[in-house]
Each structure stands twice: as C-alpha cells, then as structure tokens.
Design brief:
The complex is a heterodimer. By secondary structure, chain A is mostly beta strands. Chain A contains no helices and 12 strands. In chain A, the strands form 3 sheets. In chain A, strands 2, 5, 6, 10, 11 and 12 form a 6-stranded mixed β-sheet that branches. In chain A, strands 3-9-8-7 form a 4-stranded antiparallel β-sheet, with no helix packed on it. A two-stranded antiparallel ribbon of chain A has the order 1-4. By secondary structure, chain B is mainly beta. In chain B, 0% of the residues lie in helices and 51% in strands. In chain B, the strands form 2 sheets. In chain B, strands 2, 4, 5, 6, 9, 10 and 11 form a 7-stranded mixed β-sheet that branches. Chain B is globular. Chain B starts with a strand and ends with a strand. The chains are: A mainly beta, B mainly beta. Chain A binds chain B through residues 31, 33, 37, 42-47, 50, 52, 91, 95-109, and chain B through 31, 33, 35, 42-45, 48, 50, 55-56, 59, 89, 91, 93, 95, 98-109, 111.
C-alpha cells in the first residue's frame, strides 16, 4: 500500500514571497504519478501540478514548481510570488501507474495562509 | 464546459435516516470516483466506477454504504442508517478514462452532518 505524508499542518507566508510545502511518500511501485491539489474554502479541489515519476525533469506551472526526488521519495511544491488567492489547503497525492483503477491516495494536507 | 456538480451542497440528517448524495460528472468522462474527507481520517477513497461498473469498492467503510451509476453518467452514493461518524464531506471526481495518470476533476462536495 502507498502512504503519503505531509508533516507540516500549516504554514504562513508573506505576499510576494516564496514558500515550499513538503511531501514524502512510500511505495514499492516504480511507475506512478504525483499531484498537488489546492482546496480553497469553497471546498473545490483544484489540480495545481502533476509529475510523472518516469520523467526526471521537474514539472512547472507558472508560479508553481516541484522538486521531485525519486530516490528520496520526496515531492515538494514551491510557490513563487505568493498571492492572497493562494490561501488554501494543499494536498499531495499519489497515483499508481499500473492497473486500471487510478484512485488517488492523499496526504493529510497543509493549510497555507498568505499574509498581506 | 460544465464541471463536476454535486447535490445537495449540504445535508443535515438525523441518526438512523438514509441519505442519497448525487454526482454529475463532466460529460464524456467514463471514470468516476467517490472520496470522503473527514477531520479524523483526511481524504480517503470510497469507490470507483468505470462506466456503470464498480470494479473497486474496497474503500466503502461498511455495508451501509452503496453506490450506483446509471447511463455511464450520474452516480448516487447512498448511506443507510446514518451514524454520527458518517459526518464528513463527500467528494466526487471524474476523469476521461480510468487509465493511469488521467487527471481527476473534483466537484464541490456534499457536507453531510448527522445529528
């Protein structure tokens, strides 16, 4: 079974600064996908970024980038130029590549607050 | 196009009553997932549909929970004889296929409160 660990329950960052959210995972799989989802107070889970484990290059999406360390089983999210709208819960998630059921295994989440 | 929708947005019920939660996936998405989000357990997988079939029901916490999907579209999650521990946000997600890596798009969830 896979496990995803987000050890920081909450973080705070000043607007326009950079923040890094940590995530580690445990799996015996070699091929998989990793995701960061954002959940604002509206409850709508929004995909922030995804990473295929077979790709060595770290994924980037505008102000969001990841540091994927496969050997260390680490998948951190960096948010640059933080904005007030980034305030939300952030969940790290794992998906196996093998098999037809692509269910997500989530971490406990981290609450990020962006201060004006 | 329209995203995943869920109804009701909020549901308050009394212990022992049955409830039905509805999910309308994105049109054309063949895979549909139900997750539960609670303070104690975090986000956990409940059940997955491919078309109208449910190949994986492993996350359903008890036989009080059941789900169906009709016409390869709308899904209903039913909880019988609700208990207070069933209080949670129930999230539905859909993806184009169930193949590896297809992005799951989530609905806004149904917050269930069992008194």
């Amino acid at each position: 079974a896979q496990t995803v660990t987000q050890s920081q329950p909450e973080m705070s960052v000043q607007e326009a600064e950079t923040v890094t959210l940590s995530c580690t995972y445990d799996t015996s799989e070699n091929n998989y996908y990793l995701f960061w989802y954002k959940q604002p107070p509206s409850r709508q889970m929004i995909l922030v970024i995804r990473q295929e484990a077979y790709k060595q290059q770290n994924a980037t999406e505008n102000r969001f980038s990841v540091n994927f360390q496969k050997a260390a089983k680490s998948f951190s999210l960096k948010i640059s130029d933080s904005q007030l709208g980034d305030t939300a819960m952030y969940f790290c998630a794992f998906m196996k590549r093998a098999g037809a059921n692509s269910k997500l295994t989530f971490g406990k989440g981290i609450t990020l607050s962006v201060r004006p | 196009g329209a995203g995943v929708s869920q109804s009701p947005s909020n549901k308050v019920t009394e212990k022992g009553k049955d409830v039905e939660l509805r999910c309308d996936p994105i049109s054309g998405h063949t895979a549909l997932y139900w997750y539960r989000q609670s303070l104690g357990q975090g986000l956990e997988f409940l059940i997955y549909f491919q078309g109208n079939s449910a190949p994986d029901k492993s996350g359903l916490p008890s036989d009080r929970f059941s789900a169906e999907r009709t016409g390869g579209s709308v899904s209903t999650l039913t909880i019988q004889r609700t208990q207070q521990e069933d209080s949670a946000v129930y999230l539905c997600a859909s993806s184009w296929r169930s193949l590896q890596g297809d992005t799951q798009y989530f609905g806004p969830g149904t917050r269930l409160t069992v008194l």
